[in-house]
Amino acid sequence: MSGRIKPVTTIALIFFLVSAVGPLLVSSWATLFALILAKGIVVLGIILLLQAGQVSFGHAMFFATGAYTAAFWGKYVGGGDIVLFIALGGITSAVFGLIVGLFVVRYREIFFGMLNLAFSMVLWSLLEKMFHYTNGADGIRVPRPALLGLSFTPETFQYVILYVSLLIAVVAFYGVQRYLDSPLGHMLRAIKSNETRLEYLGTSARRVLLIGYVISAFLGGIGGTLVAIIQQIATPEFGFWTKSGEFVFIAILGGSAHAFGAFAGAAMFECVRFYAAAHLADTWQLILGVVLIVIILYAPNGLIALRQRYGQAKQGGH
Amino acid sequence: MNSTLAILAILDGISYAALVFLVSVGLSLIFGVLRVVNVAHGSLYAFGAYLAATFSLAIAPISPWLTYPALLAASIVIGVVCGGFIERFLLRPLSGQEDVLQLLITFAAFMIMDNLQRLIWGVQPIFAAEPLRLLPNVAVFGVSYTSYQVILLPGVALATLFGLRYFLRRTLLGAVILAVTEDREASTAIGIDAKRVYFVTFVIGASLAALGGALASPTTSLVPGMGADMIVLSFAVAATAGLGQIEGTALTALMIGLTRAFVIYLQPEFEVLVPYLLMVLVLLVRPFGLFGAVQVRKI
Question: Rounded distance, CA B142 to CA A302, Å?
């Protein structure tokens, strides 16, 4: 396949083009696509860890860290700029990811997942109960930031944040692709297939996983900052375990074999939520649950694999 | 903190621990045998509570004493119907697949049940305190407390603990369950129906979650979100104890219940933090839990 553009990458390009152009035609799509892209960035991090065979059931903690970084800046410093928020959100989550990562990369599978969950629930209870600093369950409002010193009206702002999200999503998508294709990325995959052999080759599996974990926390933080800016609020629910479950859900829905699965899954998830919430009030969760069950039972490799399977069937299947 | 408050905290802790134990031990049992973390466990708890409240509100006008069998009936109905459905139609087709898929399909069940619960029972809090009011208060070292919470709940928890021990170690079906847990292939080879064992175990575990909910329903108002809170809490207890440890789960539930009760009286804002902080601290030192057996690591 080298030298040729892979079919999944083509779909990814089409998707990014649609999210750039579509909202210009339908203005209600601007926020929808911004959310899809922001969540897709978080799920990229989950997919990264899934390459190593590890499922983090606590990734919402980095999502919440990114969101609250922006919220705290708005509350205690005031003002703020999108670039500043994203840089700060990314850095704090990466640092937090490094600290948590130093502990969790020593464990695998269920223990890895459990420890992540435990850390995220500690963060959630702190956000929920440190009322004086976090406003408890009400969360903190995130005032509309400027971009490089320019401030916008709400109508323009939804496009500004859309294109900022799009830019970051494209860069993150490309970066994660490159990372997974690099020697470091291949070592990350080796943790899933044969960790013992990786160690025999003289590599520290823990260090390989730690690097992946910090990148994944960084992506989670950036996604969280973006969502906080888009929705103009950060609440403890951003760090609750159901949020972590939602991210793993999106990763499996889209397909964890390829970085684009993150965006395919996020698009499906947010569209179902957006339209089901509008037309069938109070049942979007039910619908998403059924969709997830159907995907797991009949297409366990996710949406992007459906296309690949179709492609293979055309070639006579192998 | 004076002695009255201390006794009150201890009684609170015991009655809370009894409920948490029932739910956690079900989760632990399911994990021990099926190797699946049942994310829908909290929803089974919530469904048990709501159905029990519906039953007891319906039957109380006939005779208030019938509310006790109603609680039991509700938990068995939920355990068999919902638990049976999840095992038979969601988990069984996935046996042998990746763990993450099994975990996620129970997450899907959680989402669906969470939504159904709101559709069936609404979002307004429901109270059904009849079983609690029927039993008299008792005085423990001069502190008056409901005997439902301080005698009945711990009694049911202890009966469950010893019942499960007896069932698993002294009965044929229990021995069969242990055999499948130990070595599925070998036990299938000697003619044990492993699928049936998984089904029965899941239904028992699910019924315990529903029983926890049913028994909790008279003591608290039922609100949406109670399932989501309970699943992480019971998971924290089960993981701190070591997944699959029955006696360990009881001790850990007691430990977390008591710590939480004292924290409520001393530093109420840290109440929710306690179980998770304990979980982090224990798992960092002993990832297999306080009472779990050391497992051989891949490296």
Answer: 62
- B143-146 vs B137-140, strand pairing mode: antiparallel
Record: contact B104-A290, CB cut-off 8 A = no
**Token pair for B34:** 């099926």
Q: Which residue in the block uniquely carries the two structure tokens 């399932």?
A: B227
- B114 and A55 within 8 Å at the Cβ level: the answer is no
Report the residue from B104, B228, B236 with minimal CB separation from A292: B104
ipTM: 0.84
Contact (CB<8Å) B39/A245: yes
Using CB atoms, pick whichever of B101, B119, B279 lies closest to residue A296. Answer: B101
CB B24 within 8 A of CB B158: no
User: Which residues does chain A have within 8 Å of residue B98's beta carbon, measured at their own beta carbons?
Assistant: 300
pLDDT per residue of chain B (299 residues) written in tens, 0 to 9:
678 888 888 888 999 999 999 999 999 999 888 888 899 999 999 999 999 989 888 888 888 888 888 889 999 999 999 999 999 999 888 887 877 888 889 999 999 999 899 888 888 888 887 777 777 787 778 777 887 888 888 899 999 999 999 998 889 998 898 888 888 888 889 988 889 999 999 999 999 999 999 998 888 888 888 888 888 888 889 888 888 888 889 999 999 999 988 888 888 878 888 888 888 888 888 877 788 765 544 33
| pTM for this prediction | 0.87
Distance from CA of A186 to the nearest CA of B (A): 19
Please tell me the distance from the alpha carbon of residue B180 to that of residue B190, in angstroms, as a whole number: 11
From the options 1.20.950, 1.10.1060, 1.10.3470, 1.10.10, give the CATH code of B3-285. 1.10.3470
CB contact under 8 A, B116 and A130: no
Q: Which residues of A touch B110 (CB under 8 A)?
A: 245, 289
User: How crowded is residue A314: how many other Cβ atoms within 10 Å of its Cβ?
Assistant: 8
Domain boundaries, chain A: 7-314
**CB-based burial label for A244 (10 Å; 0-12, 13-18, 19+):** buried
The CATH number of A7-314, from 3.90.1680, 1.10.287, 1.10.1240, 1.10.3470, is 1.10.3470
- Beta bridge partners, A146, equal A81
Q: Residues of A with CB below 8 A from B238's CB?
A: none
Instruction: Quote the distance between the C-alpha of residue B158 and its chain's center.
Output: 13
| Yes or no, beta carbons of B280 and A108 under 8 Å apart | no
> How many Cα atoms sit within 13 Å of A25 on the Cβ side?
6
